[in-house]
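One-letter codes give the sequence; the fold follows as tokens. Both lines appear below.
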Amino acid sequence: QVQLVESGGGLVQPGGSLRLSCAASGSFFSISDMGWYRQAPGKQRELVATITTGGSTNYADAVKGRFAISRDNAKNTVYLQMDSLKPEDTAVYYCNAKMLVRNYVWREYWGQGTQVTVSS
């Protein structure tokens, strides 16, 4: 019953900002890598950004300089600060995390997604 729940999506104008959050809950012992992915209508899901427990980050070229991923390990939460949003950023954004669960097994989990719409 491990869950990743995203929040913070919405409708913004081009050039605007949003801050997404993803909180982990349920039966787990630890979280390692976390990340954000997105999927636009008619397109494949693509990586947006990832962050390790130690804070190392990677970004898709399309969002470099505009998005910033961060995490609060004490709160089991990962964030995605999105600035200078463009219409092409419109997508459902999904949280991803590698988690240590029952029987001390590492497994990958996904949130159900939060909609981000950038439109004038």
